[in-house]
């Protein structure tokens, strides 16, 4: 029987693990299908306090893990495939192994959203990507396309200009959701080209096993066109990883956990931390803060229960 299981090993999960471990709760951290969370897919993080020169995302998150392990946190590879939160102790199935726990912190984050194009999934890893940092290197002197109009799209497009011969941002509207500073930075980059009021209808060529081009549609004129592309990068937001809790925790229509005051969820003894609940701030530092709060509430809960 565990005192606390923490689902997720991003900033939220790792910070919760540091606090829970230092409270002598020996937490078990389930790494999840994206160990290290979003930070493991980024390069330089310049806005996490304490690093005046910035720090690499994967290094930052690995440091958090080491810090938690130093105080006794245990990490297990794998994902939660089933959960029973109907009674305490809670039961969690990690890739076929059931664990029981008195308290649970859900810090499972949010994963990349896909467009749902007919050929998109068939070409993932063969030209279709949701992670510029991971895959940009493969597109040296190639034609790159980035889909989206938010900060991620701007950031990824800028990053990808290090590699590609051209980087085209395709956005479905005329206005951009991205913050002014990120948009200005992208606009000032001469290697970035822009296609607004444009949606992608499909990506080719499954028969060749690699991305060779896309079919585009202008949403104003209705005109369709084709364009040669080698690297097709999605930056259209994220979906919370809450599938296994669908019938058990109160979720909003998009699947984000609904907070019942601070880190509390609709089930007593189950707490949330990070992007799995936060659709607004979604920063490393806010996720870490949320992890801290969740661990402190879990500790208080266990103490009140006499553990
Ligand atoms: P986002 O802000 O939700 O933007 C998603 C973009 O994708 C929007 O422009 C949206 O278009 C577009 N989109 C969504 N679904 C689409 C679809 N089916 N087809 C075509 N386009 C679609 O997501 P994000 O850019 O990943 O940013 C998430 C959060 O992280 C934000 O709060 C952001 O500020 C933050 N962030 C910060 C930084 C930084 O400061 N360094 C970097 C990255 C992200 P519409 O605008 O038309 O809805």
Q: Explain this structure to me?
A:
- There is one protein chain.
- With 307 residues, the chain is an alpha/beta fold.
- It has two domains: 177 residues, FAD/NAD(P)-binding domain (3-Layer(bba) Sandwich), CATH 3.50.50.60; 121 residues, 3-Layer(bba) Sandwich (FAD/NAD(P)-binding domain).
- It is built from six helices and 19 strands.
- Strands 1, 2, 5, 6, 7, 8 and 19 form a seven-stranded mixed sheet that branches. Strands 10-17-11-12-13 form a five-stranded parallel sheet, with helices on one face. Strands 14-15-16 form a three-stranded antiparallel sheet, with no helix packed on it.
- Strand 6 and strand 7 form a beta hairpin.
- Helix 1 packs parallel to helix 2.
- The radius of gyration is 21 Å and the shape is elongated.
- It starts with a strand and ends with a helix.
- The model has no long low-confidence stretch (mean pLDDT 95).
- The structure holds NADP nicotinamide-adenine-dinucleotide phosphate.
- The site of NADP nicotinamide-adenine-dinucleotide phosphate has 17 residues, from helix 4.
């Amino acid at each position: 029987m565990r005192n606390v299981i923490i689902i997720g090993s991003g900033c939220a999960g790792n910070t919760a693990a540091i606090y829970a471990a230092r409270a002598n709760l020996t937490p078990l951290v389930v790494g999840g299908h994206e160990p290290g969370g979003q930070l493991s897919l980024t390069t330089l993080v310049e806005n996490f306090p304490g690093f005046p020169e910035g720090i690499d995302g994967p290094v930052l998150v690995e440091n958090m893990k080491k810090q938690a392990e130093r105080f006794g946190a245990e990490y297990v590879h794998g994902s939660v495939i089933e959960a029973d939160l109907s009674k305490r102790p809670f039961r969690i199935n990690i890739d076929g192994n059931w664990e029981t726990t008195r308290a649970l912190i859900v810090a499972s984050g949010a994963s990349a959203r896909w467009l749902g194009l007919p050929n998109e999934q068939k070409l993932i890893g063969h030209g279709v990507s949701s992670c510029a940092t991971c895959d940009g290197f493969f597109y040296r002197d190639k034609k790159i396309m980035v889909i989206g109009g938010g900060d991620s799209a701007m950031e990824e497009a800028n990053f990808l200009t290090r590699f590609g011969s051209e980087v085209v941002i395709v956005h479905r509207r005329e206005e951009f959701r991205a913050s002014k500073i990120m948009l200005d930075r992208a606009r000032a980059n001469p290697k970035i080209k822009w296609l607004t009021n444009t949606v992608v209808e499909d990506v080719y060529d499954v028969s060749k096993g690699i991305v060779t081009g896309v079919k585009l549609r202008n949403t104003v004129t209705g005109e369709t066109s084709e364009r040669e592309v080698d690297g097709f990068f999605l930056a259209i937001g994220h979906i919370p990883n809450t599938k296994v809790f669908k019938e058990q925790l109160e979720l909003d229509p998009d699947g984000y956990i609904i907070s019942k005051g601070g880190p509390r969820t609709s089930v007593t003894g189950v707490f949330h931390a990070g992007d799995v609940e936060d659709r607004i701030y979604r920063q490393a530092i806010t996720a870490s803060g949320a992890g801290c709060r969740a661990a402190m509430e879990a500790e208080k809960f266990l103490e009140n229960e006499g553990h």
